[in-house]
Amino acid sequence: MPKFGDYAAKKFLYKFKMNPDFWWTFKEPSIEDDIEIEKLLKREFILGKNEFVVKANHFDIEIAYKQIAATFSSTNVQSDVFDGPFISPETPREIAEDALRNTYQIFVIELWEAVKYIRPGWGPIAKKYKIEIV
After folding, report:
1. Residue 73, C-beta contacts closer than 8 angstroms, at least 6 positions apart
2. Looking at residues 108-117, what average pLDDT do you find?
């Protein structure tokens, strides 16, 4: 594999606001990851039936867990269901997405807020996702 110098993928260490002993390492997404997210953002589907029909592109939380899984590198967060890490670097993407989809929303939103530091243009766009821990 070629060495890319300054173009090589970078990593970003994030420490959780509510528990600074917990950390999550993000890696830069690949071009393939970018394409997958773009397809999701451009996808259209119909919500409702009969008189109430809304054309929609995606659900924000769906984008969140997919972007987090695409940029996941490592973590020390332990599972509250089984003995071991929440997800590991060896965890297949689909399993990581499923784990994120089935965990606590505040956890996912906090991680999603951090995604923008490793991949500009990703992460929450709307201010409604800005969270404050008090």
Report:
1. 11, 25, 26, 27, 89
2. 91
